[in-house]
Amino acid sequence: MGSNLKIATFLKENVVQIGRQQQMELIYQHNADCLQTSVFNDSYNESDSRCAQVWDGVMCWAESLPGISHQECPNYINGFNISGFASRLCGENGEWFVYQEKNSSWTNFTGCFPTNRPVLLSTMKLHDVIQENIPKMHTIMNVGYGLTLCSLLAAVVIMCYFRRLRCPRTTLHLHLFTSFILRASITLLKENIFVGGVGLKSDVSKDDSGTVIFIEGDTHWQCKLLLSMSIYCITSNCMWVFVEGLYLHVLVSMAVFTEKTSIKPYILLGWGLPLLFVVPWVVVRVTRDDVMCWNTSSKPEFLWIVRAPITLAMVVNFIFFVNILRVLFTKLAASNSQQSRRYRYRKLAKSTMVLIPLFGVHYIVFIWIEPSQVSAHIQVAWLYFEMTFNSFQGFFIALLFCFLNEEVQTEIKKSWMRYKLHRMSWQSSTHRLNIQSNTASSISHPKVRTCNPKPLTSGRESDPLCSISKNIEEPRCASLIGQKSNQEISELFG
């Protein structure tokens, strides 16, 4: 039936690839043929136990005796494997099997979907509420990760440049910053070069209607490698958030620990622990669930190979967070001074705000939600929350632990002061050389002021022609740098 129709489909390994518009036209044509055959069929008798001819919305089923009927899968449905078979059950009462949940007859098309069938963007159709919010979420993500990347790169340069900032604590901060930089970079790269979120340009094609079709038949190792790197960067970033929490918890809670204790175990834990569950995940995907670019899965339970350790780390980190707040509150409450009591809650609130991004406390809010098991509106709220905090978390950490850090600000001010002093010294030296040159060439002006080599007396104004670089450590030139004391000058120049 329908053999006289022209089927303009493309088959790749017996899998149909056809445009949506052409598919709908062929379905209408087959439907019309089925109705026409039913009208001119006089052999059916309601008293028989046979099931009547029926159109199931995809293909036409002829009259059938009780039992299971089979047909070859249609060659006009995108993604169907034409070497498979669809089935339909005819009951003993002469009625087709009815699916109770939908209260309609049902056809089993399971055999038409091969294990390695191409997956279309249209088959992963999202709810309209989610679909209309996706562009806004992408904008938030790009802005957030862009700010994170720029701010953390600047923070790394600052903390590496100033030697006085180097200590075990800041070393761990640098590793945390690096993990956020890697996560932001790989996420921006993946989201902007993946076509429709499906794969690289070499992995997909588009039909006439613009539907993205994943091309089967190749290893697609490039996109799988990129996604595996993305998974590792995300998991290592989460592990480094856990490591920072662990380090601070041990530092605050255990008196036997000092900042001079070796941090090598923490570094090994931050970069090495993710490999213990990312590598098994890659092995399972290669051997058991090699679907597309591994950005979708036919067996969602495999995702828990990566998700379970991250969930556990975030739960433990939240416990660390609560315990550290308890210790801080206890120490603040122990002070009986009026000032301590007045600012106790302010200090505690400030400490809490600083620790929230460092410990990734926001993860605990929606960590228990399974998106496929909740309504579309809850999914949208979850996506907005997670996209915003995940993308801006690195920016907040750079702000709190670098740019707003008093030690960092002090070092930057010292460096700026050194620069100004050296510049003033150079200008003064240049000016002195010009005066000496004029003195040598103008013998008609014998009373030219020169640098007074004698120490300045109390109350005497310093000579503006003196070299600042020569006299910077002498008390007689202190007025040239804004009346700073010897101790401040010594501190500025190390």
From TrEMBL:
GO terms for biological process, alphabetical: adenylate cyclase-modulating G protein-coupled receptor signaling pathway; cell surface receptor signaling pathway
Localisation per UniProt entry: Cell membrane
A GO term from the CC aspect: plasma membrane
Domain G-protein coupled receptors family 2 profile, residue spans: 33-116, 137-405
SUPFAM superfamilies: Family A G protein-coupled receptor-like (SSF81321), Hormone receptor domain (SSF111418)
Membrane topology (UniProt): Multi-pass membrane protein
Sorted UniProt keywords: Cell membrane, G-protein coupled receptor, Glycoprotein, Membrane, Receptor, Transducer, Transmembrane, Transmembrane helix
Pfam family, one: HRM
Keyword Nucleotide-binding (UniProt): no
Segments passing through the bilayer: 143-162, 229-254, 266-284, 304-328, 348-369, 381-404
Predominant localisation class: membrane
InterPro entries: GPCR_2, GPCR_2-like_7TM, GPCR_2_extracell_dom_sf, GPCR_2_extracellular_dom, GPCR_2_secretin-like, GPCR_2_secretin-like_CS
One example GO MF annotation: G protein-coupled peptide receptor activity
Family from the record: Belongs to the G-protein coupled receptor 2 family.
Record protein name field: G-protein coupled receptors family 2 profile 2 domain-containing protein
